[in-house]
Amino acid sequence: MTTALMSFPQSEQLEDASKRIFAACLIQRMLPNYLLFCEAFDAGDARVAKAIVDVVWEKITLPQAAVNMAAQLDKLEAITPNVDDFDGFGVFPASDFCVALGELLENFDAFNDDMLIALSHISSEGITALLDVQGEDLDQLSMHPLWQEEAFFQREVYNRLYDMQLAAADRRAQLKSLREYSRNDGVSNLGISLD
User: Fold this and answer.
1) How confident is the model over 54-66, as pLDDT tens digits?
2) CA atoms lying within 13 Å on the CB side of residue 165
């Protein structure tokens, strides 16, 4: 069973810039998973993770900004947890965040449909993994509130990006709105927050 909520026909409707924005929205929403890992395991580096996400949004908002993505990728690799070094489920969503962010950093200028669908899958598969660990019936996955929230989130971001492509709206204001929406009041795709 595939858990990617983004399909090829949908992804193909998005411009390259919109694909990167969609990915950044997913990553922004997954960030609390990494931050909670840092707090719970006293590992990683929350400050660096937030700074890298900020750099991604800066590059999206100001495409002409000079950003060394390779340097950002090196910083990310230095704070990426090895799942074999930790005992506890929390390392897996933290790792997922790092994998998704790394995929965007490494392929920023050539981010394509396959990559976007892979990131959609990483985000939604994290929910499946959490529910499996909790002993939930995965045959009823589509009925679970976390899954429904994720599906709604991805659909809403897609719709906003598609509309943004059609409208001559203030791009910077639209991006600010999308990032704020993706922050989701600090609640991640897994329904967790630091509060």
Assistant:
1) 999 999 999 999 9
2) 15
